[in-house]
Amino acid sequence: MAILQGKACVITGGAGSLGLAAARLFLKEGAKVTLVDLSMQSLERAVEDLPQDRIELVAADVSRSTDVALYVAKAAARFGPIDVLVSNAGNFGRVAPIDDYPEDVFDRVQEVHVKGAFLAAKYAVPHMHDGGSIVITSSVAAFRGDPGVYAYITAKHAQVGLMRCLAKELAPRGIRVNSIHPGPIDNCFQHDVEKGLGEAIGRDGTEFFNAMIPLGRHGTPDEIARSLLYLASDQSSFVTGTTLMVDGGMSV
User: Fold this and answer.
1) Are 86 and 151 found together in one domain?
2) Structural domain range at position 202
3) Is-contact 144 186, C-beta < 8 A?
4) Is pTM, for the whole model, over 0.85?
């Protein structure tokens, strides 16, 4: 039997490569999926080849409580109580020296990654089945410090603290809460990061990252999605409060 058969799942950042790869895999495993992203147009383009009878699309800003309450309500109205919440929406900000780092950029990155994950749990948990799963997409950056990456690295560290608090609080209901920590992924998000980093450090950003990864390459969205599936499903039924590294050995 498919390991998410009949499960109601919510994935934020659903129009991006990782959110879409997770949605595709979850659907293949029998799930019903609500995909959330800023742009309805981007969502509609992304899901053209997916089974429409098991998809709900919601355009929302994950940092706004009214938008979060809306996507949770729509998910529950369409598919019933939520079994799996994947808080995956993200943005990068920029790389800059501390005295030149824009406050508005720093604030917006915290809003999307940290407040977005907080609000997702705040509004979804009352609508979740006991025994469900919450997964926060963090990053290998949650265990690093690099010059100039102030907004993104700070946000990714903060997500781990949020995850651990949720894991303790929700354990009595059997709701597992974990974070996943990809290394560099071969997608548009990472390419933009590497372009900015390359300009800042004066060398090719992709080569810079590959040199830091023992496996010598970027991961693919499908590889990360398979780890998300593990944490979402009952295959990880005794796993909570964990930071799952999916980074090709970069954090070793």
Assistant:
1) yes
2) 184-218
3) no
4) yes
